[in-house]
Amino acid sequence: MLYQARLDWIRTRDKFKRAVAAMRASNEASQRACRHFGFTCIDRAPRTWPDGATDDELIYELRLKD
Known about the structure:
alpha+beta; Aminopeptidase; 3-stranded antiparallel beta sheet; 2 helices; 39% strand
């Protein structure tokens, strides 16, 4: 419901062309949620997270308009 509420809000504003989400590569639940709402993975980079863990960061994008 949170994804849907955020996307509904952003779609009512003409100035936004895309929505972006970033997560750890090991966060499969977030990846599934992004794909469910039409996001596409556009980038992947190694990262050391604030808790000291090392895992790739995935960047997902949803194009709202061109």
